[in-house]
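Case 405 in the screening queue. Each case pairs one protein sequence with one candidate compound; here the compound is zinc ion. For every case the pipeline is the same: read the inputs, emit a complex structure as tokens, and attach any notable structural observations.

Predict complex for case 405.
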Amino acid sequence: MQQEDSSVTVFRKFLQIRTDHPNPDYEASAQFLMQKANEYGIDAEVYRETGTPIVIMKITGTDPSLPSLLLNSHVDVVPAVLESWNYEPFSGYKDEKGNIYSRGTQDMKCVCMQFLEVAHRIVQSKLKLKRNLYLTFVPDEEIGAGSKGMEVFVTHDKFRQLNVGLCIDEGLASPTEEFTVFYGERAPWWVHITAVGNAGHGSRFIENTAVEKLMRTINKMLEFRQQQFDSLHKGHHECGKKLGDVTTLNLTVLKAGINNGDNYSYNVVPTQAEAGFDIRIPPTVNLDEFLKQIKEWTAEEGLSFTFANYTEKNEMTHLNNDNKWWSTFKSSCEKIGIKLVPEIFPAATDSRFIRNLGIPAFGFSPINNTPILLHDHNEFLNENTFIRGIDIYMGIIPSLANMEP
Ligand SMILES: CSCC[C@H](NC(C)=O)C(=O)O
Ligand SMILES: [Zn+2]
Ligand SMILES: [Zn+2]
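Case 405 output:
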């Protein structure tokens, strides 16, 4: 049997560290990363001021005054429902085809380890880079409000001191030969609507009930959802709209009725009813206008709303030729013969916090010919795709870090 590539062995060990929510073991992952950095001769520290450990690695450039290149990855992963997996999801199991099954194989422990291997190769080969190269391994990407990851880190002086010129973070697997690169994301707005209305006996015609009011607003919002759905699916083929180009809106929370623990009071018309929506808005949509739209939808007396997740800003990275980071990224991909398809990321990653500071960021995971299985059961990555990903990053990262000012 062929000897396993050492980078794959390290990757499989990292997959075994339990950084799954709701109780990610960030100390164990920080310890693992620090030990690897030490072994590979990479400068590293654990930054703790945000409340959870962030591992920062650094390769000093020949001109440290230039804006740096940041490789950011999150170390946390979403939970895995054991019964739905064919293999134990935190075992780093590899089958005879070289497919590695574990939570985080795509999202995004692969990229964590590929960045680490790139740093290793740069140090090992004594390759000199013009700009400082930083690697940050952050917690809490997978949760919304209350996270102690990138959202908080970008507000610290420590982050400002990195003087980041460009950030590379996660993208998505691509099922085809082509690779996707993300230059923006949709803003995640989680809207919680509360309706209050008249109560009374369930046998009577009660007017202006909370549920009625809530249903009217829900119907308006679902009508908008249908328009967006149609513009994605029924548009001209040439338009080639992708999920990231339209607004999605899903009713994900619904709550009403007098609940008595194990039963409901069916004959009591409740005074309150609530609905929660996960709305994702493309960066081309004016967020002030969209807020007005939500206010209109909820204008009826007795309705109010709050945000469980909100952002008033949603910057994107412009992919024109004036953006030297982009032209360098693109030309280095051309040089190694990989085809890029630029898209808007349909969900949210840490890149949004970077872009909202006015710093360009690309979401790029070097995974092609692989089904998109992030957050899904039986998430896997083939070892050869993983190894090739390191080579692909080696074709891109040094060029970016050597980019002329
Ligand atoms: C708003 S914080 C939640 C972030 C999460 N990210 C991914 C990639 O699933 C999401 O988009 O739902
Ligand atoms: Zn992720
Ligand atoms: Zn994720």
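Case 405 observations:
- The CA atoms of residues 120 and 126 lie 10 Å apart.
- The chain has two domains: 6-185+314-401, 187-309.
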